[in-house]
Amino acid sequence: MGRKVEYMGAYSATSNDYDIRLWCHRNQIFITPVETGYRERKWYIEIDIRGKIYKSPEHYTPTTIWDKILEYRKYYYEKYR
C-alpha cells in the first residue's frame, strides 16, 4: 500500500499573484512553506531574500498557509519593486 500524501489546502492564485511570484523569483526572493514536524499538518513560512533566510514566528494550517504566503509575496513585491 502506498504512502498517504498530506494535503496542504487549496491554492487558487490570480494571474496577478503569478506575476508577483515570478517577480519575487527573478529578484531572488523565495517564500515557501516548510512543515513544522513529521505529519503535523502545520507549516511555517521560510523567506529567503538573496541568501538571507528568515522564518515566520507563527505556524499555519492547511486553510491559512497559501493565503499567508501570498500576503508575504505581495508585501515584498510592494516593498522592493
3D architecture notes:
The mean pLDDT is 89. This protein has helices at residues 15-26, 65-80, and strands at residues 29-35, 43-49, 52-55. Helix 1 packs across helix 2. The protein has a domain at 30-80. The protein is built from 2 helices and 3 strands, in the order αβββα. The chain is an alpha+beta fold and 81 residues long. A 3-stranded antiparallel β-sheet has the order 1-2-3.
How would you summarize what this structure contains?
The chain is of the alpha+beta class. It has 2 helices and 3 strands; from the N terminus they run αβββα. 35% of the residues lie in helices and 22% in strands.
What features would you highlight for this structure?
81 residues; globular; alpha+beta; three-stranded antiparallel beta sheet; single chain
